[in-house]
User: Fold this.
Amino acid sequence: MTSTPHHPDLRSQLESLTTEAFRPDLAEIDQMPTLDIARAMNGEDTAVPVAVAERLPEIAAAIDAVAARMARGGRLVYAGAGTAGRLGVLDASECPPTFNTAPGQVVGLIAGGPEAMVTSVEGAEDSAELARADLDALGLTADDAVVGVSASGRTPYAVGAVEHARALGALTVGLACNRGSALAAAAEHGIEVVTGPELITGSTRLKAGTAQKLVLNMLSTITMIRLGKTFGNLMVDVRASNEKLRARSRRIVALATGAADDEIERALTATGGEVKPAILTLLADVDGPTAARLLEDSGGHLRAALAAGRG
Assistant:
C-alpha cells in the first residue's frame, strides 16, 4: 500500500499552523520551578473550553446530523492518527458500557491499526489510501457518519477518510484545531476549535488533544441523549457488566422511580437486570414482557414508552 508522497513544502505548511507556533515567552520553561510550569500549563488549559464554546453551533449541527443517521441504523465512525486517533478509539470503546450500544455501532479507526494505540506506526498517518481501506473493511454505507479528527487539520489519513466517506454518501464531520483546514473543508460539517500554540511547541496532545476530547465527549454523549439512551441525566442504558455497574443500575432505578429496595430488586430480576424496562415496570405498573414491547415500539425512548404505558 503506497503512502502519500512527502511534500517538500511540509515544513512551511507546519510553520503556518497555529498549533505548531513557537512561544518565545516560554523559551526558558525548562529553567522554571516546577510549580511555575504547572501554573503556566494550567493557565493555558483554561483557554480550551472557551475555544470549544465558540464552535458550539457547529458542534450541535453535527450532533443532530449524526443522531439522524444513527436513528436509522447507521454507525458513528471516528478516524484519526496519533493522539487524535487514540481519542476516537477511547470514545468509541466507552459507548458500549455507558450506553449499551451494539458492537460496531460506534467505531474508532486509528492509522496503523490497534498497534498504533500504544506505539508509533511509521508513516501510517501519511496514507489516505490506508484510510480508504480501513473504511472499506467496515462496509461503509450512506447511513453511516464518519468523523475525521486531526489537530493540524491536514493529516492525510483523517482527510482521506472524510473524502472517501463523503464520496460514498456518508455523513462527514471534520474536527481540527486550526482555521482554514483541509479537513474541515472536506467535510459536510467542519468544526475548527482553535486552541493556539502549545506550551511545548507542536505537542498537540496538550491543548488540542484536550479540545478534541471535549468535542468527542459532546458528539457521542449528546447523540446518545438524542437517541433515547438516557432518561433525564440518568444512564438508563448502562450495561451492568460488573458489581460497580450493578450497584449503579440499582441506584439509577431508585433515582428514576423512588421505589423501595425490594421493589427495585424484583423489577431488575424480572427484566434480566435491564434498567429501562425495570423503570417502566415500576412507573407504568406493567410486567417485564409488556415493558420490553413498549420500549421496542418506542424505539428505545423511555419517556415515549412511559407515556404509552400510562395511556
